[in-house]
Design a protein that fits this description.
The protein is an alpha+beta fold and 303 residues long. It has 2 domains: 120 residues, D-amino Acid Aminotransferase, Chain A, domain 1, CATH 3.30.470.10; 152 residues, D-amino Acid Aminotransferase, subunit A, domain 2 (D-amino Acid Aminotransferase, Chain A, domain 2, Alpha-Beta Barrel). The protein has 7 helices and 17 strands. The strands form 3 sheets. Strands 8, 9, 10, 11, 12, 13, 14, 15 and 16 form a 9-stranded mixed β-sheet that branches. Strands 3, 4, 5, 6, 7 and 17 form a 6-stranded antiparallel β-sheet that branches. Strand 8, helix 4 and strand 9 form a beta-alpha-beta unit. It starts with 6 loop residues before the first strand and ends with a strand.
């Protein structure tokens, strides 16, 4: 059972999580006309009266951009103010995850984005490891990642996640932990809700934005950290066969953080993962406020 934080932000005010309810006629429920964000926070290990949020500004900006794709003007600074107050209201004592959501809140049956009411809510839950930190098995999904010409992939549009849901269930029900989706050109795109990285010959390689991936904030963080470490970074198309022969493969995302891949289909990958572990250890230190060079990535909130 999930441990939801007790206070939600709903219809412009903070209220008990159990009292934040939508009508069954809500427009977004029927048409997927919503967009969400997701960010992690932890109680500061070095200051018991403080909570740390990872890259709050980038998450707020991305959600604001997603809202614009839904014809909704929701400034990033307004989102940030609500999220900060949300944390103060809940005073979390465990590692947690915040889910802000913008959506068409009108009651109606016409699929559209014009002349329809929009709204914004926030809830959260305690969250440790989303996937096993020891590594996951992946299958190549029979479902393909959508193309940006048919769906705005620069935003986390809720309706797009039917493909992720199909791929995830297909993977789990066939004995794997996670799915990796190809794009329409047959190249590696992303996992069900995570970006994909491989390591070959000391180089960190990941599909670029032209491969119909989400603009992942954790992905961006990893690329920056790797470059700062002197690791050569290459953003390019990745073939399916490269997953099977890579020295290391890992997934990244807000929930997943950095999760190693131990197996792709029937191919077992090397158990030594020096690049993955180095990046993961550094990212963990950053989120805990222990890396001075990246202090601007961590937003402290006094509770």
């Amino acid at each position: 059972m999930q441990n939801f934080l007790p206070i939600a932000y709903f219809e412009g005010q903070f209220r008990d999580f159990n009292d934040a309810k939508l009508s069954i006629a809500t427009h977004a429920l029927h048409y997927g006309t919503g967009a969400f964000g997701g960010l992690r926070g932890i109680p500061d290990p070095q200051n018991s009266g403080q909570v740390l949020l990872f890259r709050l500004d980038r998450h707020c900006q991305r959600l604001s951009t997603s809202a614009r794709l839904l014809n909704y003007d929701l400034p990033a600074d307004k989102i940030q103010a609500v999220l900060v107050e949300f944390v103060k209201q809940n005073r979390p004592t465990e590692s947690f995850y915040i889910r802000p959501f913008v959506y068409t809140s009108d009651l109606g049956i016409s699929p559209r984005l014009h002349k329809v009411e929009k709204n914004f809510f926030v809830y959260g839950l305690e969250l440790g490891d989303y996937l096993s930190p020891e590594g996951v098995s992946c299958r190549i999904s029979s479902w393909h990642r959508q193309e940006d010409r048919s769906l705005p992939l620069r935003g986390k549009i809720s309706g797009a996640y039917i493909t992720s849901s199909l791929a995830k269930t297909e993977a789990v029900e066939s004995g794997f932990d996670e799915a990796i989706l190809m794009n329409s050109q047959g190249k590696v795109s992303e996992a069900s809700g995570m970006n994909v990285f491989i390591v070959r010959h000391g180089k960190l390689i990941t599909p670029g934005y032209d491969q119909d991936i989400l603009e992942g904030i954790t992905r961006d963080s990893i690329l920056t950290i790797a470059r700062d470490m002197g690791i050569e970074v290459v953003e390019r198309p990745v073939d399916k066969s490269e997953l099977m022969i890579a020295d290391e493969v890992f997934l990244s995302g807000t929930a997943a953080k950095i999760t190693p891949v131990r197996q792709v289909e029937t191919y077992v990958l090397p158990s030594e993962r020096p690049v993955t572990h180095r990046l993961r250890d550094t990212l963990t230190a950053i989120t805990e406020g222990r890396e001075v060079a990246y202090q601007d990535w961590v937003f402290p909130i006094q509770i």
